[in-house]
Amino acid sequence: MHTEPKEKNQGWRAWKERLQALKNIPPLLGLMWKSGPGTVVMGAGSRLAAGIVPIATLDISRLIIKYLVGLSHKHPLPHDFWWLVALEFAFAAGGALCGRLIDYSDTVLADRYTRYISVRVMEHASHLDLVHYEDPGFYDKLERARVQATDRLATIRMTGQLLQQVVTTASFIVGIAFYAPWLLMILVLSIVPAFLGESHFAFLNYALKFRQTSERRQLDYLRVLGASKDSAKELKLFGLGSFLSGEYGRISDRLLKQDLALARQRGWVTSLLSVVTTAGYYSTYGIVIYRTITGQYSISDLYFLIGAIGGASSNIQTIFSTFSGIADQAVFLTDLLEFFEVRPAVKSSPNAIPAPRPIRDGFEFQNVSFAYPGTTRLILRNLSFRLEPGRRIALIGENGQGKTTIVKLITRLYDPTAGEILLDGVNLREYNLEDLSREIGVVFQDFMRYEMTAGDNIAAGRIEERRNVARIQGAAQQSGAHDLIDRLPAGYQQMLGRRFEGGVDLSGGQWQKIALARAYLRDAQLLILDEPTASLDAPSEHEVFNRFADLTSGKMALLISHRFSTVRMADSIMVLENGRISEAGSHGELMMSGGRYSEMFELQASSYR
User: Fold this and answer.
1) What is the rounded CA–CA span in Å between residue 555 and residue 241?
2) What is the CATH number of domain 367-606?
C-alpha cells in the first residue's frame, strides 16, 4: 500500500547521491594534474582544437556548395574558391593530427596516472593503523580503493571527451541559433528522457556492485585458495577441489543472475527512450526540409543546418551519455577518496622527540589497560611492569591472555585504552613514531617470507642498508643464514619463493635464519621474539634460541613462547592470566613457588618423559 511513495523516496535519494557524487570529480582532476601536468595541458589543448574542427569544416563546405550552386558561364568560380578547398583540407588534416595527439596524451596520462595513484594508495595504506587491517569492513573499502585506483582511467578519458564534446556542441549551437534557436529546444527535450534513464541505471549498477563487494572478495579468496602452492597439498589429500569450485560457482552464479536482471531491465527501458530521441531529431530534420522547399532556406543553408542539427543532436546525446558515465564513475570514486581521507590515530605528535640512543631506564607499563577498538572486553587490566636495559623478559600464558597485545603496545601499533607506557620516563606518544620503530626489532611467528632476493629479504630489516653488502652478509653470518645463502645458485641475488621464475623455496628453519638476519641487521635496542619458533622442530628451535641469546646480549629482549624449555634463558618470566600478571620471577623462583607456572611446566614436561 505504501510501496510507491517508498520507491519514489528511494529514487530521489539515488539521484541526490549521484549529484552529490559529482563533487568527487575536482579531486580526481587534481590527482590527474599531479600525475602529469604537461600531458594534461597537451591533451586539453588538442581536444579544444579538435572541438572546433567540425563546425569550421561544415561552414567551409557550405560556402563551397553555395559557390557551386551559383556556378554558370556568366558567373565563374570566384578566385578564392580553391583556397576554400585547401582550407577545408587543412582543417581535416589538423583534426586528424589532433586525434593522434589526443590518443598519445591519453596513453601517456593513463600510464602516469596509474603509477601515481597506485603509489599513493600503497603509501597511504602503509601509514594507517593496524586496527584498520584487522577490520573486515576496511578490507572491503581497501579492495574497492585498489580497484578504483586504476579503474578510473575511464573517468579521465571521459572528462577529456566531455570537454571536446562541449566545445563541438557549442559551436554547432551557435550555428543553428543563427537560423532557428527553437530547433535546439526540440533536440534537447527529446534527449533528456534518455539521459535520465541512463543515469538512473548507472546508479543502480553502482549500488549493486557495492552490495556485491564482500562476496566478490570471497570469490577472489576461493580463486586463490583453489590454485595456490600453500593449499595444494590439503586440497588433494582432503578432496576439497570440487567443494571449492562448487562454492565459487554457487556464489558467482548468484552474482551473475543479479547482473543479468539489471542488464535486461536497463536494455528494455533505454531502448524505448532512444526512440523518443530519434523522433526528436527527425522532427527538426523535417522542419528544415520544409523550410527549404518553401524558399526560406537555400540549398547551402539546408546542407549546413542538416549537418549542424545532426552534429548537435549526436553530440548532445553523447554529452548526456558521457556526463552520465562520469556521474556513474564519480559514485565509484567515493571509496577511493574516502580511503585517502582515513587518518591514523597512532601517529607522531607535531613536536615529537627522537627515541633515546642509548636507552637508559627502559620501558615501563603503568596501570595499562587495553580493549580492541569496537569491543568493551579488556585484554589487559591495570598491567604494570618494567623492562630495563640488558634484561630479558619472557611472557607466557594461554592463548588470548594478552601476550601479543603487549607486543603491539610496546611497538606502538596501538595506544593503551588506559594507563601509559614510558620509555626513559617519557610517554611513548611523545616520541617520533618512525624513530621509535627503528629501535625495536620484532620477529613474529608469522614473519614475512618476501619473494625477493635473499639479500633484499635481509635488507628488509633496515632497508636503508640495502646497498651495504658487508652489513647484510655480516647479519647473515650472525644468524646462520650465510652458509645456506652461499649454497644457492645466485647467492645473495637468488630469488626466494616460487612466485617468480627461477625462485628457490626454503624450509621453515632456513626462512627462520633469514628472519633472524633481519633482526641482526636492524641492530635495535629492544628485540622481540613473538612465537617465532612455533613451526620448528626441537633442534631447530634450540639453535634459534642459542642465536637469540647471542643476539640479545646486552640488550632488552621480550620473548613469547609456549615452550617452557626455551623461556628458561630469560632473566624474568611473567605469567599472564586474565590480562594481569599472576606470577613473575626467574624459572627457579617460579618452580619453587609451586604456582601456575610450575603447574604448566610440569604438564608440558610430562609429555617428553
Assistant:
1) 49
2) 3.40.50.300
**Nearest alpha carbon to residue 572 among 381, 392, 440:** 392
Cα atoms found within 13 Å of the Cα of residue 146, Cβ hemisphere only:
11
- Cα 72 versus chain centre, distance: 70
> Other C-beta atoms within 10 Å of 306: how many?
16
List C-alpha distances in Å: 335 to 133, 264, 575: 16, 27, 44
Q: What does DSSP assign to residue 448?
A: -
Q: In 3D, which of 251, 311, 268, 327 has the Cα closest to residue 16? A: 327
Annotated domain spans of the chain: 22-341, 367-606
Amino acid at site 387: L
- The string of pLDDT tens digits covering residues 194-246 is 777 777 777 777 778 778 877 888 888 888 777 766 666 667 666 777 878 88
pLDDT tens column, 502-526: 888 888 778 888 888 888 888 888 9
| 158-168 burial: b if 16+ Cβ within 10 Å, else e | bbbbbbbbbbb
Measure the CA–CA gap between 551 and 539, rounded to whole angstroms: 18
299-341 and 182-211 helices, crossing angle to 10°: 30
**CA 53 centroid distance within chain:** 40
Q: Which of 211, 206, 191, 147 is nearest to 322 (CA)?
A: 191
Return the H-helix or E-strand segment holding 203. helix 182-211
Output the pTM of the full model. Answer: 0.66
* Helix or strand (DSSP H, E) at 289: helix 241-293
- What DSSP state is assigned to residue 555? S
In degrees and rounded to multiples of 5, residue 553 shows phi and psi of -60, 120
C-alpha cell at 440: 625495536
Cα dihedral across residues 132, 138, 143, 148: positive or negative: negative
Nearest to 164 by CA among 287, 54, 1, 23: 54
Report yes or no: 308 and 55 within 8 Å, Cβ to Cβ: yes
Considering the chain, what is the average pLDDT of its residues?
81
Pick from 199, 194, 195, 159: which is nearest to 15 by CA? 199
Q: Which of 489, 539, 545, 493 is nearest to 516 (CA)?
A: 545
Q: For residue 365, report the phi and psi dihedrals to the nearest 5 degrees.
A: -90, 125
Assess contact for 471 and 457: CB atoms under 8 A: no
**Could you tell me which of 62, 294, 65 has the C-alpha nearest to residue 172?**
62
Cell of 504: 628457490
The fold adopted by the segment(s) 22-341 is ABC transporter transmembrane region fold (1.20.1560)
